[in-house]
């Protein structure tokens, strides 16, 4: 008789194999992990420290604690300074933006006032005011007298009076 392979499943004997191997349904059989060897523990005898060793150990521990406290204090101070500088920077930025807003308002006021001034002093407005309020009229070409100043200067006398006095007397 041939030897049967115990790891192979005979599907025609499924229920029988399930009972033998404690298989439920179609799940594969659970395999147990191989036991791992742990290293053997060694017992170490603790030696007592002398008073000098205890003082040295205490001094070293104190130095370590002080070092850690100094580092923690330095980090804390650095964080406080960083936060304080950030607050100062925010305040300065807020002041800068307020001044920039004031500058923009002043610029818009300047533009508004310049436009009003231009409207008041425009040639059309001046001509209109002169004609309507003051009763002035524009100069005509025949009313313009040109004086030639390229000739030599002289004073004209008429009957012993200068020309200026003659014109004012008439």
Secondary-structure blueprint:
Blueprint: H1 14-21, H2 51-121, H3 123-132, E1 157-158, E2 161-162, H4 163-169
Q: What is the ordering of alpha helices and beta strands?
A: HHHEEH
The total of helices stands at 4
Largest sheet: 2 strands, antiparallel
Please tell me the overall pLDDT: 80
Radius of gyration: 58 Å
Report strand %: under 5%
Strand order of the largest sheet: 1-2
Helix coverage percent: 55-70%
| Low-confidence regions | none
Secondary structural class: mainly alpha
Topology, number of strands: 2
What is the global morphology? elongated
Name a few traits of the molecule.
2 strands, 4 helices, two-stranded antiparallel sheet, mainly alpha, 170 residues, elongated
In words, what does this structure look like?
By secondary structure, this protein is mostly helical. It contains 4 helices and 2 strands. It has helices spanning 14-21, 51-121, 123-132, 163-169, and strands spanning 157-158, 161-162. It has a two-stranded antiparallel sheet. A hairpin with a 2-residue loop joins β1 and β2 (161-162). The chain is elongated. The termini are far apart. The model has no long low-confidence stretch (mean pLDDT 80).
């Amino acid at each position: 008789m041939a030897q049967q392979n115990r790891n192979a499943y005979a599907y025609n004997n499924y229920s029988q194999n399930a009972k033998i191997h404690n298989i439920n349904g179609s799940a594969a059989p659970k395999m147990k992990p191989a036991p791992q060897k742990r290293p053997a523990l060694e017992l170490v005898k603790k030696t007592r420290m002398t008073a000098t060793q205890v003082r040295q150990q205490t001094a070293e521990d104190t130095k370590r604690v002080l070092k850690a406290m100094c580092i923690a204090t330095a980090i804390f101070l650095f964080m406080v300074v960083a936060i304080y500088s950030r607050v100062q920077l925010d305040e300065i930025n807020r002041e800068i933006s307020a001044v920039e807003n004031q500058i923009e308002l002043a610029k818009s006021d300047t533009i508004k006032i310049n436009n009003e001034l231009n409207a008041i002093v425009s040639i059309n407005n001046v001509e209109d005011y002169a004609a309507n309020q003051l009763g002035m009229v524009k100069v005509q070409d025949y009313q313009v007298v040109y004086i030639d100043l390229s000739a030599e200067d002289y004073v004209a006398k008429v009957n012993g009076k200068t020309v200026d006095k003659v014109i004012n007397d008439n």
